[in-house]
């Protein structure tokens, strides 16, 4: 192809002449010159002999620059070898070729894509003299194809990164493309399924799938369809499917694009959330520990679809694990399991107790921690286990266990769900355990309380007789000592009488507290006492001791007084005023300012005896806790639908802890080591702690409300700190006003107004005829003795 055309012409003049004769036809030339495709002829060496105008335009050169030039001059260097091989093949085989796309360089230097065809030319003698063909400019088409290819690559790259499984099927349902997400979810790779059907239809769903395909072909699209598909490993997944049929486009065949989204975990979480909500809502219904655990076991068994669900608790004292509850397909094993105990360091549950972490065992035969003794004793076979810890604050109290999942192996979703159940029930489980312990403690406490009541009641009655005998003996002794100088014996006698009075006071308080607890028994005792009294009096009269019999009866009535507290109408302001005046001599030695503000109001209905004890007790409490030179305010006024009695002192106050315990009974606000027993109404006289409990019991028995508020003096913040007892001796408070601002206590008692008209008809003044004072009826206040704290 490097020889010049002139040399070739000199050697083959006859061939040139023959060629010119072939091209001399005007009709043929006119046709060739007017077509859009380029027509060319080259000699056997590839030099251009003939070409039409379209080829000149295509190459971008004038005719004279192409004529007799080598074909390779206009080719791109990438295609030179390929063109040589193509023409050699034609020369060797004699067979023409077509659709050869080569790059050419135009005169301007641009590269164009040209599609060539070529056939071998022979002369009359059959000699090979050159090649003839057609050239077609396909640059634009190639640009379009390349653009499409780039788009396809971009779209494919995009589809490869779509997180949802995507498949492209032909209309026959064979796979042409699937993205990596499909492989990740379902397990099959494109190489396995290309041009094949995907075997992922679960058994029994063939008819549903057939209907779905039919609907897709009819409507062309499916926007959302919840269905199921199988994975390569056989797992059934819940999926949402979207599909569209795309039409044929040029070289692209029609097909179906299917997008699948795995919602198995989503649906399981939704079901689990609903189940947890239902479990949480149901937990308060199970106050008994055993019922609660049975409920939990059955829920775990149902929700995880397992053969067995067990609640294993830790006995810390014995260092053992035991099955408190269980739900199992084998009901006999379910009963046997509750009798089994084993060491806390054994088994998979022992590992969970040690580490505090969930454990999955897919094959128990290969796990060294598996404790087969439990299976042997229970009579079942455990193949797989999921254990999660049950916690209470910072310690592990047991294990929640699921065995032998029925639909596949345990997975992390099961771990999360069982852990959530464990977290949900832990508090209820601990509460139920506490409730069981409280019930046991309550039964024991009730038993002890009954024994205590019997002892207190017995001691109360046993004290009464010897103390009364001592009192009588003291009175006899007083008569016999009256002949001696008083200074030698009176102080001792007063001290003895005062302390016997205190013992009697305590007996009365205990009797009031215990009265409601043995009311029924008292009726029988009253009957026996009446019979015994009548018998003793009769015997005395038969012996001719009439005066003695009267004294015996009076003494028995005093010792074992039997009175029924009958409600009466009381004007609280008048009653309070009279009671205050009665007890005023008892604290005449105290230097206190008593400010009374008593307002009339509606009458109240209440037995007089407990009312007197309440009023005296509250006033006495205020006096004994207020230092000399201090003040106390006593008020009665109407409030709402009743009357309120209030005593406010500016004394030492009560500490915060004691405020919570003040009504418990036999509780003193002073430190035990600092306790003293002075005369009633003295500052810090000390009490037995029973009066406030008695008031509390009265309030429940007679339907009034008792409340208290107190502020402890900041200068004596603890019970061990002491007030000097007189304001002028206080190192901090210099005036009464200073002390008033430091602390104090307010006791309030609210009595509802009487609505009983039948009682009111007896007379507000208490007597049948409307005369007298209501609060003097049934008055049992001992002269010279106070009651109260």
Note down, in words, how this protein is organized:
By secondary structure, this protein is an alpha+beta fold. The protein has five domains: 5-137, Beta-Lactamase; 152-262, PAS domain (Beta-Lactamase), CATH 3.30.450.20; 269-438, GAF domain (Beta-Lactamase, 2-Layer Sandwich), CATH 3.30.450.40; 484-559, no CATH class; 568-776, Histidine kinase-like ATPase, C-terminal domain (Heat Shock Protein 90, 2-Layer Sandwich), CATH 3.30.565.10. Helices cover 44% and strands 21% of the residues. The chain contains 25 helices and 23 strands. It has a six-stranded antiparallel beta sheet, sandwiched between helices. A hairpin with a 4-residue loop joins strand 11 and strand 12. The longest helix is centred in the middle third of the chain and has 70 residues, at 412-481. It is elongated. Residues 1-13, 516-525, 671-675 and 760-789 have low confidence and may be disordered.
Briefly summarize what is shown.
By secondary structure, the chain is of the alpha+beta class.
What topology does this entry show?
Blueprint: H1 5-11, H2 13-22, H3 26-34, E1 38-43, E2 48-51, H4 53-59, H5 63-66, H6 80-93, E3 97-105, E4 111-122, E5 128-137, H7 139-161, E6 166-170, E7 175-178, H8 180-186, H9 190-193, H10 206-219, E8 221-230, E9 236-246, E10 255-262, H11 264-282, H12 289-304, E11 306-315, E12 320-328, H13 331-337, E13 341-343, H14 347-355, E14 359-361, H15 372-378, E15 385-392, E16 395-405, H16 412-481, H17 486-515, H18 519-542, H19 546-559, E17 568-570, H20 572-583, E18 593-598, E19 604-606, H21 608-624, E20 631-639, E21 642-649, H22 656-661, H23 691-702, E22 705-711, H24 736-740, E23 744-752, H25 757-760
Parallel strand pairs: 18-20
Antiparallel strand pairs: 1-2, 1-5, 3-4, 4-5, 6-7, 6-10, 8-9, 9-10, 11-12, 11-16, 12-13, 14-15, 15-16, 17-19, 20-21, 21-23, 22-23
